[in-house]
Amino acid sequence: MNRFWPRAVIFDMDNTLHDLRGARIAAADALMAYCGVFGDLQFYSLNRNPPTLIEDSVTAYIADGVEGDFNECTWLYHTLEHACISLFDGMNEVLKALKTNGVKLAIISNADPEETERRLNTMHIMPYFDAVVTPDTFGIKKPNPLVFEKTLELLGVSAEEAVMIGDKKDRDVFPPRELNIFAIHAVYGTLEQPDTEYTAAKPSEILEILSRTDN
Questions:
Q1: Which range of residues forms the domain containing residue 177?
Q2: Residues 203 and 179 in one domain
Q3: Pair 57, 117 in one domain
Q4: Helix 70-84 to helix 20-35 angle, to the nearest 10 degrees?
Q5: Please, are residues 126 and 105 in contact by the beta-carbon 8 Å criterion?
Q6: Among 7, 51, 11, CA closest to 132
Q7: How far is it, in rounded angstroms, from Cα 197 to Cα 184?
Q8: Which tens digits make up the pLDDT trace of 145-168?
Q9: What is the pTM of this model?
Q10: Crossing angle for the helix pair 70-84 and 53-63, to the nearest 10 degrees
Q11: Contact assessment for residue 103 and residue 7, using Cβ atoms and an 8 Å cutoff
């Protein structure tokens, strides 16, 4: 069967392109070792999702009786997290294959622009992407369907010509499907139950799904 190459593939960033959860676990372990107190920092960092996630996590950790300077601890956590960020195994090959075959690539991330740029540069993958959309780009963020519509306009493709890939069903899978965008659930990056339609258990399966889909 001829491989189906969409005109555009849009990726979520965190826990879709790279293992943010793993990076945060490693950073939490290292910070706790530095402070000499193995408390609940991993729990805080993995189970809370406010905009100031790391700052709130460190605040809660210190409040548990840890003798540590807040500024020093947050700086160390951020530094360690970025040092541990890396692409999921096989993702670079996926991006290269899509780009080589003329597919437009984009990211829609709910992270702030500075953090998004920093993570992409850390992974050395910024040149792959034709567009990087953050909440500041259009003044909206996922799961608002307008962010997908405006990204399609930016890329110059229709919904039927695009694919969306992400680890969150309520942000990355269901909203684009409502717009007739083909969506793949990146279960390799999530603790959620797999989607019932299209799922990828590892990055290489993204290409396998596209190869058997005559969209």
A1: 8-18+87-211
A2: yes
A3: no
A4: 140
A5: no
A6: 11
A7: 8
A8: 999 999 999 999 999 999 999 999
A9: 0.90
A10: 130
A11: yes
